[in-house]
Amino acid sequence: MHADMTPILDKSDLLMDVEITNGMLKNYKPLEYVSDYFKDKNLSKIRFDTLKNEFEFKEGKLIIPRMTINSSIGFLELWGEQDLNLNMDFYFKIPLKMISQATFQKLFKRKKEEVDLDKEDAIQYQDKDKKIVYVSINMKANSEDYSITLKRDKRIRKERRRLRNKKTINIYDCRIKFR
Question: Does residue 164 lie in a domain region?
Answer without folding.
Answer: no
